[in-house]
Amino acid sequence: MLVPRLAVRNLIGAGLKAWLNGIVLSISFLAIITTQALLKGMYEQTAEAMIETHLGGGQYWQNNYDPYDPLSLQNAHSEIPETLEGLIDKGKATAILTIQGTIYPEGRIRPVLIKGIDPDQQILNLPSKVLRPDSDPIPVLIGQRMSEATGLRQGDFFTLQWRDANGTFDARDATVKMVMKTSVQSIDVGQIWISLERLRRLAEMPNEATMVVLQRGLTNNLQPERWSFKSQDYLLQDVTEMVRSKSMGSLIIYVLLLCLALLAIFDTQIFSIFRRKKEIGTLMALGMTRGRVIRLFTLEGAMQAGLGALIGAAYGIPLLSLFAEKGWTLLETTDSYGFALGEKLYPVFTLGIVAGTTILVFIATTVVSYLPTRQISKLEPTEALRGRVL
Amino acid sequence: MNMIANGPLIKTEKLVKSYPMGQQPLMALDSVDLSFGEGEFAGLVGPSGSGKTTLLNIIGSLDVPTSGSVTTIQRKIEALTHREAAELRNRHIGFIFQTFNLLPVYSVFENVEFPLLLLGYPAVERKLAVMKSLELVHLADRHRSRPAQLSGGQSQRVAIARAIVKKPAIVLADEPTANLDAENSHNILKIMENLNQELGTTFIFATHDEKVIGYLRRKISLIDGHVSRDEIVSKNTERRD
Question: Chain A closest CA to B10's CA: distance in Å?
């Protein structure tokens, strides 16, 4: 117990210096934890928004449907199998029919995806109710980005053209019933929403759909013919990949912050050796073994990290709690990142992030405290007493 | 000269210490043969570079000889491991340095207590021993002070208290008065002389300070690493001033 006791005594004796080091370390601790929490928040927020408005609890796709190939849409529809129809009837799923079309807002031509959805569905968090009553001109729901891109506002009229199942072109007037504000680009950009039944009639695709979206949490064990199930994880793959690619960037920041923290400790320890070389010689002359000297300095470094963690906890817990509650107001340009983040990003602080970062910094700090002190073991007492370092 | 049961307290035989320096090694000590017994108050005297500190360091197991043999309290210095050397210093040898070498973040009490902590003394014994040592150097009332709050003379007295607190067989003092004025020098020398007489501790100094030389009972003159003279000094208080 002598070494811990002396380490505590040294740390207390160091006074202001120990506090300053602790504050620097605590900033590094919090910066690393916050970076990780923001990244986690980014993923969770994006995934949640997508699940809520687009992905549901997974989707059944008509086998010809390929979201990356617009030309496949022409054939990506068929009658909904009975098994899935049963789920829709029970309110546990909703069908979406997607075809290609063209709109002519303000005399301009613009290709769009026309998506049909049941106005009464409650599976996705979309204001589909505005699509009722199914009147003329056709009530249409569009997103904010689509509104900005086309110049269409609520109440505007435009011409909608499409090609039905037989390849015949037809057109009708449509009106924007609502411009919805959403962070999810995949239900907004380049698409318009109309009533499912109306679209089926227009396209002559009775009882057909492109996909069936399941309620969240619904256990899936159906295997209908010509339809394949896409799980939530599969549908979130793109987001996961995107977050992963962003993670690489944040990993660099993480490593840099960690290095900064370790540099602070490393510098402190190196500086301590230079400044305390005579003290080390004195300790050796008084009969302290080299092993004990190494343990003492290593422990001092680790305790410094502990002090940093305590200081960080003292001001970090209220500060980060407030941050988690209030979130981070994002710039409008953040929308172009490809994430469904919305106006604010809320960091997610988990026990794993906090404990993991603390343990990692703690271990790394101990290691970088050990390395310079290991050099002391090569120092002869007489050299140390003369104030000469290796 | 008193000897311990199995021979002298310290004995050097054909002690050589050289340092590599270009083609020709620098001979700090050259074939030094010396013995010290219990209770001596001896000094290694000579100009700078004569080998005083080197000899003191080797006797104190802070350094090792290049060749020859040094026995301190029946232990061959050249054969000791780092751990054994540390243990020898811890148990049997007290050091007093020219620059005091007090641990700056510790109080006076904690500085003096330090060797006892290493030896694993219980708290009660430590406290008694520390306060007794501080009383011997007349600093008991300053036990809560920090080294930065002490004068040079007081700092050296703390260093003396730290050196004697564990009741070592040997105290090695390297230029203990070099940073002190005349009055403080005499004060601490008197203290060390008293301790030598009261406790029977062997004091060996490395010095070229005439004030210290005036207190010595044995004077060993070193020139260029050789012992040029080894003499017993008769008591003459006038020489001290």
Answer: 18
Cβ of A382 and B62 within 8 Å?
Answer: yes
Do A9 and B97 count as a contact with CB atoms less than 8 A apart? no
Verify whether the Cβ–Cβ distance A2 to B120 is below 8 Å.
Answer: yes
A89-115 residue pLDDT tens: 998 999 999 999 999 988 789 999 999
- With contacts defined as CB-CB under 8 Å, which chain B residues touch A12? 105
Q: What is the ipTM of this complex?
A: 0.90
Distances (CA, A) of A65 to A76, A114, A207, B22: 5, 15, 17, 84
Indicate yes or no: CB of B105 within 8 angstroms of CB of A10.
Answer: yes
Helix, coil or strand: residue B8? coil
Measure Cα distances from B239 to A192, B44, B186, B212, B236 in Å. Answer: 111, 17, 12, 10, 6
Contact call for B105 and A381, based on CB within 8 A = no
Nearest chain B residue to A12, by CA? B105
Q: Rounded CA gap, A95 and A116, in Å?
A: 8
Domain boundaries, chain B: 40-64+80-240
**Cα(B35)–Cα(B2) distance, rounded to whole angstroms?**
11
Contact of A134 with A201, CB cutoff 8 Å: no
Reference A197, options A80, A101, A102; nearest CA is A80
Residue A375 bridge partners (DSSP): none
Distance CA A104, CA A173 (A): 10
Q: Does B90 touch chain A (CB under 8 A)?
A: yes
Interface test with A, best of B118, B164, B175 (most A CBs within 10 A): B118
Burial class of residue A113 in the structure, from the number of CB atoms within 10 Å of its CB (0-12 exposed, 13-18 middle, 19+ buried): middle
Q: Tell me the C-alpha distance between B96 and B188, whole Å.
A: 11
What is the residue extent of each domain of chain A? 2-51+239-385, 59-230
- A 355-384 residues with CB < 8 A to B: 380-382
Tens digits of residue pLDDT in B29-85:
999 999 999 999 999 999 988 999 999 999 999 999 999 999 999 999 999 999 999
Measured between beta carbons, the chain B residues lying within 8 angstroms of A13 are 104-106
Bond preceding residue A137 cis, omega within 30 of 0: yes
Residue appearing with tokens 């996705």: A124
Q: Which tokens is A71 given?
A: 């030309």
Q: Within an 8 Å CB–CB cutoff, is residue B63 touching chain A?
A: yes
* Global confidence as pTM: 0.70
Closest-CA residue to A132 (of A140, A124, A144): A140
**Domain B40-64+80-240 superfamily per CATH:** P-loop containing nucleotide triphosphate hydrolases (3.40.50.300)
Average pLDDT, chain A: 85
pLDDT tens digits, A235-256: 888 777 776 776 677 677 777 7
Instruction: Look at the block and give the residue holding tokens 């029977």.
Output: B200
Residues from chain A that touch B103, judged by Cβ atoms under 8 A, are 279, 282-283
The one-letter amino acid at B237: T
* B234 to chain A, closest Cα gap in Å: 33
> Does any CB of chain B come closer than 8 Å to the CB of residue A6?
yes
Cross-chain residue pair B90–A10, CB shorter than 8 Å: no
